[in-house]
Specification:
This protein has 364 residues and is an alpha/beta fold. It folds into three domains: 33 residues, no CATH class; 112 residues, Rossmann fold (3-Layer(aba) Sandwich), CATH 3.40.50.720; 193 residues, Rossmann fold (3-Layer(aba) Sandwich). The strands form two sheets. The chain has a seven-stranded parallel beta sheet, with helices on both faces. Strand 3, helix 4 and strand 4 form a beta-alpha-beta unit. Helix 5 packs across helix 8. The longest helix is centred in the last third of the chain and has 19 residues.
């Protein structure tokens, strides 16, 4: 478009005083196309101030704000939209999206985007930047589990001295214990770095036979089933940090949990469905593993006020699990970094430049 504009303006006919009506109309059309703003659909609940930009763009865009329900807008709101910003995308939304150029996910996970729903010539990109707070959470719950911190605080607050070392006995420590990681991406590597600071040996399994880049002192076992089973069998803590995809749903089931030491803990800030719910519940209830810290679940709220139980099985009745509502990466730092990446992608779209963090398996 820029080259075409330059060619038209540079034409000797354009420079003549008697410009033709045809040439004038062409110039007006080009100027109009170049001045059009991207129409960007965003969640009205994300930013309550309608006078401010939801994302810190530098190029002008037209914000289309609408209420999201269960993380989704009404399908018809996508008509005439150039860019949709959200975490969920369904076939109904795809059918209504008649001019969609990009789906920008202001988060890391893309498992709630239906691959078959993405329109032709639409690019999907996500945003990361959550590895630092998630790694902090992982190490915090590792300490809390190992030191029985929550039980000690709860019983002592109630007046009991049962967790006093004089009655309880000695506690464990992280130093020298093995930290295992399944899924060796940004989160896994950040955890490896922090675990090293606790003088913990780290072993990891991923999706490939070899891992490139800084391993942060981890012993990378490799990819595939045998590598995962080695990590499960030889770790005192097992972190699940792989994305949810068809290949990873139910990746950790009864067999995998049975490989773990009875003194070992499993920690999941990734996605609930990577670990089979029934298998995890029975492993905790029967104490075939020592405990767990779970941040991601099997059921979530669908409206602004409903409060469903996060699973079919009553994990909340168990005393060897730390349960939190998917907040390990939900920090102000994560939000600002993701907003900046989303804004850069919007600016790049406006300038017809490549996007960051393209999700290749979803983009068409």
């Amino acid at each position: 478009m820029v080259a075409l504009t330059f060619a038209l303006i540079s034409s000797p006919y354009i420079l003549l005083p008697s410009i033709t009506l045809y040439q004038s109309n062409r110039l007006n059309l080009i100027a109009s196309l170049m001045s059009q703003k991207l129409r960007v659909l965003v969640n009205a609940n994300r930013n309550q101030d309608p006078t401010s930009d939801p994302f810190p763009v530098t190029e002008p865009v037209e914000w289309i704000r609408t209420e999201f329900t269960d993380n989704k807008p009404a399908p018809e709101s996508l008509s005439g939209i150039d860019v949709y910003i959200g975490t969920d995308f369904t076939k109904e939304m795809g059918a209504a999206a008649d001019s969609l150029k990009a789906i920008l996910i202001p988060a890391a996970g893309y498992d709630r985007v239906d691959p078959e729903a993405v329109p032709e010539r639409c690019t999907v990109a996500n945003a990361y930047h959550h590895e630092a707070p998630i790694a902090e959470w992982v190490m915090a719950v590792a300490v809390a589990l190992d030191h029985e911190l929550l039980k000690s605080e709860r019983t002592f607050r109630a007046g009991s001295w049962e967790m006093w070392p004089g009655r309880h006995g000695s506690y464990r420590e992280l130093m020298g214990r093995t930290f295992g990681i399944i899924g060796f991406g940004a989160i896994g590597r950040r955890v490896a770095k922090l675990a090293n600071a606790y003088d913990m040996p780290v072993i990891a399994a991923g999706r490939t036979e070899t891992a490139a880049g800084d391993l942060h002192g981890a012993n990378y076992i490799g990819g595939g089933k045998s590598a995962r089973e080695h990590v499960l069998a030889n770790s005192d803590f097992v972190l699940i940090s792989t994305p949810l995809a068809p290949a990873t749903e139910g990746l950790i089931g009864s067999h995998e949990l049975s490989l773990m030491k009875p003194t070992a803990y499993i920690i999941n800030p990734a996605r609930g469905h990577i670990i089979d719910e029934t298998a995890l519940y029975h492993a905790l209830k029967n104490r075939t593993i020592a405990g767990a810290a779970i941040d991601t679940w099997y059921r979530y709220p669908e409206t602004a006020s409903d409060s469903p139980r996060p699973a079919e099985h009553p994990f909340w009745e168990l005393d060897n699990i730390i349960m939190v509502p998917h907040h390990s990466g939900a920090t102000t730092g994560t939000a600002s970094r993701r907003a900046a990446t989303t804004a850069k992608n919007l600016d790049n779209l406006s300038r017809n430049q490549p996007l960051f963090n393209i999700v290749r398996e979803l983009s068409r």
